[in-house]
Amino acid sequence: MDEFDQWAAPEYPVFLGSEIQQAAPNEAAFHVIPVPYEESVSYGGGTGDAPRAILKASWQLETWDGKSTPAELGIHTQPPVVVDGPGQQVIDNIAAATRRAVEAGAMPVALGGEHTVTYGVIEGLRAAGIRDFGVVQIDAHADLREAYQGNPLSHASVMKRIVDRGVPLYQLGIRAYCHEEAQIRAQHQGQIHYRDADDLVPGNVNALELPDDFPEQVFFTVDVDGLDPSVFPSTGTPVPGGLGWYQTLSLFESVARQRKIIGFDVMEHAPMTGFHAYDFSAALLVYKLMGIVQRNR
Ligand SMILES: [Mn+2]
Q: What is the pLDDT of residues 129-180, one digit of tens each?
């Protein structure tokens, strides 16, 4: 791809393409991976439109994020992952894109799409030879069901698929889960850690301490419904009582101070016609997380 190319694919502008020249794949610290996958919607739809909306909104960002300029590290936007076909095929495609990022020496930054996408990213990290890592998840929902509506690749089961791989998990901001998920948490004591919204939000908790035995490398997944619907109403299954904007950034930063971030994603944004503010919020969230990574490397 030409280094001056501002389009990852027709209809898909590159991240921050208005401000920066896109970095070559092997010269970028971040590989933005658009994944317009929307299959197992349980309530409101639209998350398949999110990657394009976020990339478009990124053209309105400032390169200075208020503290540093993460764009200096190089950002490359891959073409969107092909999401037609059976679920396992899509997971394989996402894994291949993630592996390409890692093998280019970059950090994958996946833009969903539904939360199932995160399973593909985790499979890609494993395929690239990264085994000893944990996942920190911001979410309203535990996503720990064995299957949902008969589908083990549902967005409501994504964290169970990851736990099944033996990956340690730390959940933040959960406030909607079922009895089965509470049992799965109990069965995986020592592997699944959590601080739920009813602890973090009323307590205004802005930092957490990871357990000593939590892996040194961390992948961070943000389901935007983990934030309060006053910040992100643009999501399929909103739940009141979520994390604040600054609280989310602070929690991410507290993890980045303690561990090495090896990638992150932003999932489940669902653009709302006429409300471009939320597309911009999602783009800014992605860029702010890049900035935190930059300042804590
Ligand atoms: Mn989720």
A: 999 999 999 999 999 999 999 999 999 999 999 999 999 999 999 999 999 9
Domain segments of the chain as ranges: 7-295
Query: CA 173, 246, 259: angle at the middle one, nearest 5?
Result: 70
Tokens coding 258: 């303690």
Q: Give me the DSSP letters along 164-217.
A: HTT--EEEES--B--HHHHHHHHHTTTTEEEE-HHHHTTTT-------TTS-SE
Q: What is the pLDDT of residues 201-259, one digit of tens each?
A: 999 999 999 999 999 999 999 999 999 999 999 999 999 999 999 999 999 999 999 99
Contact 124, 99 (CB under 8 A): yes
139 alpha carbon – ligand 1 mean position (Å): 5
Architecture of domain 7-295 in this structure: 3-Layer(aba) Sandwich (3.40)
Cα 23 to averaged position of ligand 1 atoms, centre (Å): 31
* Ligand 1 center from residue 5 Cα (angstroms): 33
Residue 33 has φ and ψ, to the nearest 5°, of -120, 105
The alpha carbon of 221 and the centre of ligand 1 are apart by a number of angstroms equal to 9
Distance 222 CA to ligand 1 centre (A): 8
In the Cβ-directed half-sphere of 84, how many Cα atoms lie within 13 Å? 0
The whole-model pTM stands at 0.97
User: 157 C-alpha vs ligand 1 centroid, how far in Å?
Assistant: 9
Q: How far is the CA of 296 from the centre of ligand 1 (A)?
A: 26
